[in-house]
Design goal:
2 copies of one chain form a homodimer.
Chain A (H helix, E strand, L loop, with lengths): L3 H23 L22 E5 L3 H12 L3 E5 L11 E2 L22 E2 L5 E2 L3 H9 L4 E4 L7 E4 L8 E4 H21 L9 H14 L33 H7 L15 E4 L5 H10 L3 E2 L3 E7 L4 E6 L5 E6 L1 E4 L3 H4 L3 E2 L3 H9 L6 E7 L3 H4 L7 E4 L5 E3 L10 E8 L4 H5 L3 H15 L3 H4 E8 L15 H7 L6 E3 L10 H27 L1
Parallel strand pairs in A: 1-2, 1-14, 2-10, 7-17, 11-15, 14-21
Antiparallel strand pairs in A: 3-4, 5-9, 6-9, 7-8, 11-12, 12-13, 16-19, 16-20, 17-18
Helix pairs in contact in A: 1-15, 2-7, 2-15, 3-15, 4-5
């Protein structure tokens, strides 16, 4: 008979973290990952020693969860801070990149999140840790209808800033008008019941602000444009449909499920979350420990690292959890099989980057009525993200560019001064106030950050399955094993890895007792 | 020649507050009401005495602005607190209605705004006062796509809770599919250029998550329904179009310009705004002063009031600004002309009402992933508004019903206990957790509040013009003169009235000196 424990052992040994996690879930040892379900491993680690490499969210969470169970955990972190890409730039922050060094000169209290900055409402694991660690969150205002769209490369709407609300209202109006016409012309009678036909016409009139003959003339949701002539009068005249479609601005309005409302952010900066985790893990974290090699025998793992002064050290563990970014792990001397090493080396990493810009006053709020949200553009800066906190304050820091994926590489390859010049030049086309109000900037190019060498993995499912297989006594963890680029991926991977290590350790303890 | 001053005098005397305001604006004495433009009256009141009746936002703002100019202001307020409908219910708050008394038993730190609760981003005057008074604001999360729609009275979708994101995604899908079909069938060739035709088809495929043949099968934005079978699997199957249209749920998705993103709210409760104003006005406010009569001669106004003990008092002023709700002003003994009295008496008032419910835990966040936003229903409760602050905390207060306009009258006419029973019965159809988690409730029916007798005016333009005319030395102020129901209306009206009184006083001082 396949007993519970036997099943989990097999799963842990054969299928790695994911399968063990699924097995424990299926067997009711752990609640399924759903709303508010606590992660609640049972049993004891009995002092089993686990070396965790990396004090980012994944590594810290593994250490935190295994620590709860009585494991002896030691965390090695190359930086002198926890959090990895869950990082916040504040006064005095020093850049971690190659190339010219930057030191942040923002005012006290001003900051921006150079890495993870927002949490979808359905990332229940991330939110669960915020709750458990009493890290407060607040609304991340993803969309401001007052923010701008600015296209520089399309003949349509070229070099003209338009408000989200204008494009949004006009597209709703045109789509409603066109569908209304088709319905009224009986072009859709074969797919609409007479009752639905009438109801749809009524709905479209409302949705698209159509007149009684089904025409769109601009809706009140476009808003009065205080900046536009004639002065002080509402400007409801719609943009031409051809201009809208040709500019591709309507595509900016639609966002994926991860960006659905309501998003939240950590109060005071994302780094408060890893800091709270690190505080729970406590002195078990050794900072400025640069791992050189991971070697294992039948009964344990030896991890060698250099400290801040370059002096060599070694630590032993019964198991090792490796929560390093893969580009760095690829440089570590390991006895992993060649195909596993090849998998690690082949995972592509994105080169996202951001710049924070401090301004003397929050002109985007004062002059443009933009509170949170983002302006989008086809210029190199991609977007300007406005802060969702500190509204109406004296000064403010906005994100002058945020480029995702490979789009961040060209700008990140420039020097900090060149990046700043670009951000100011292009940003001032959207906000002419830029030049007069700017005080300082700080940029991060993740592919150039020494201890990351990439912003996030683009792991495919096959690579993910491969990487989730334990290599002897070494287990990997990180968002690259679960959900690339999101904190949720780090937390979920950490739980899966902690579950797998625990299942393995419990099984080996049982074997040892026999 | 019509001099500047003469023009303003005439405007002030003839056309009342609005016209004087417009005149000063037009003459460049005051900046036009636009983004971040400071309100900046010039000149001195030279100790001219102004009696202000009402320490709501309008009355306080008149006192604050005239106080800046050196007027000797006295404010009479019937309540023992400032703020009127800009009120927040907290532990210990006592109800102000007729009928059975309520005392709020929420935990310390828990609250809800029973009146004004949110500020549109384009209400620059309200936001300007928040900035000037250093009253912090935060995002009011108006929309949560995870919130529910629940129809009890339509055969379609009857007694079934669906998520906003489901209705939203399905309607976008169906509208895109239908329009795509009509376009592909060449039904709209006469109004679409060949280029726009192709671009529109491409856009609709993206917008509506259509397949390559233009069909909608449910989009990822519907989200996995964790509560629905089969357990743990995504449920992307769309709701039928006929059910959606028949239920009228799609109408809940569209909101007016006032509710466009981003909305904000006062940190810690709306009452922090009038409190900050009252602190600036200081000891010039006399609380528990119930005005009985307003009488005037050629040189001044006499206002009689009773104090907390019923003792009569009189105060004199050169001018009087009356910022009382009209239903109360109609009961005051005045020497206004009969037609003016008739106008005051005829303005209809709404009967909005709200109930705050404290729960042991924030199940809407923990179980349903709802952060802010509101669930909407055709049941008597109308909507459930979730808090936009205090996310992930232990307990929470949500608004168990918020009924606007006359819809609040039936529920407000019930006793507090009956209202609570109704809110729990209907609310628990949307949230089965209600019964197990509820701790206490507190309700406000504005048409029964002693010092309001209505939630807000529905003043029409003709009545507004009439009421803006000064009656001798008495000027009215309040949202009923500007923008019914919004704080912006109170602030704007206050500025207009302060401007008119100042223009008049300056003109009369000049005349006196001649």
């Amino acid at each position: 008979m396949l007993t519970r424990r036997r099943f989990i052992e097999r799963a842990a040994l054969a299928g790695g973290a994911s399968l063990a996690y699924e097995a424990m879930t299926g067997l009711g040892l752990m609640a399924a990952p759903q709303a508010a379900a606590p992660f609640n491993l049972q049993g004891s680690g009995n002092g089993t020693k686990v070396v965790v490499i990396g004090a980012g969210l994944a590594g810290l969470t593994v250490a935190y969860e295994l620590g709860k169970l009585g494991y002896a955990v030691q965390v090695l972190e190359a930086r002198e801070r926890p959090g990895g890409r869950a990082h916040t730039i504040r006064r005095g922050t020093v850049s971690e990149e190659d190339g010219p060094s930057q030191t942040c000169t923002f005012d006290e209290g001003q900051y921006f999140n150079c890495g993870a900055m927002r949490i979808p409402y359905h990332h229940t694991t991330t939110l669960g840790y915020c709750r458990e660690l009493q890290v407060p969150v607040e609304t991340f205002a993803l969309v401001s209808e007052a923010a701008y769209l600015y296209q520089s490369k399309t003949p349509a709407l070229k070099d003209r800033r338009v408000r989200f609300r204008e494009v949004h209202t006009d597209m709703d109006g045109y789509v409603s008008e066109l569908l209304s016409k088709a319905v009224a012309d009986h072009a859709l009678d074969e797919v609409l019941s007479p009752e639905d036909r009438e109801r749809l016409l009524e709905y479209l009139r409302s949705k698209g602000a159509l007149d009684s003959s089904g025409k769109y003339h601009g809706g009140a949701l476009r808003g009065p444009d205080l900046a536009g002539p004639p002065e002080g009068t509402p400007r409801y005249t719609p943009l031409p449909l051809g201009e809208l479609l040709g500019s591709r601005t309507p595509y900016y309005l639609d966002l994926g499920f991860q960006y659905q409302q309501t998003m939240v952010q950590v109060v005071g900066g994302t780094d408060q979350l890893p800091r709270a985790l690190a505080a729970r893990v406590g002195k078990k974290v050794t900072y400025r420990a640069a791992v050189q090699s991971i070697r294992q025998g039948e009964r344990g793992v030896t991890v060698a690292y250099k400290d801040a002064h370059g002096a060599p050290h070694e630590v032993q563990g019964d198991y090792c959890v490796c929560a390093m970014p893969l580009p760095l792990l690829a440089q570590v001397d390991t006895d992993f099989p060649a195909d596993f090493k090849a998998t690690i080396a082949k995972v592509p990493y994105a080169a996202a980057g951001k710049m924070g810009l401090q301004f003397k006053r929050r002109f985007w709020e004062e002059d443009d009525q933009i509170f949170g949200g983002a302006s989008k553009t086809d210029m190199e800066i991609g977007q300007i993200v406005y802060p969702s906190s500190g509204y109406l304050g004296k000064k403010g820091v906005l994100v002058g560019y945020y480029l995702q994926g490979q789009a961040g590489r060209p700008i990140g390859d420039k020097t900090p001064d060149e990046r700043l010049a670009l951000a100011l030049e292009q940003g001032s086309r959207i906000h002419p106030q830029y030049r007069a109000e700017v005080e300082s900037g700080f940029s991060v190019a993740w592919h150039r950050v020494t201890w990351n060498r990439g912003s996030w993995s683009n792991t495919n499912p096959a690579a993910r399955r491969k990487l989730a297989e334990p290599q002897g006594r070494v287990y990997l963890a990180g968002d690259h094993l679960n959900m690339n680029a999101w904190m949720q991926g780090a937390f979920e991977s950490a739980r899966q890895t902690a579950t797998a290590v625990h299942a393995r350790a419990v099984a080996e303890q049982a074997t040892a007792r026999v």
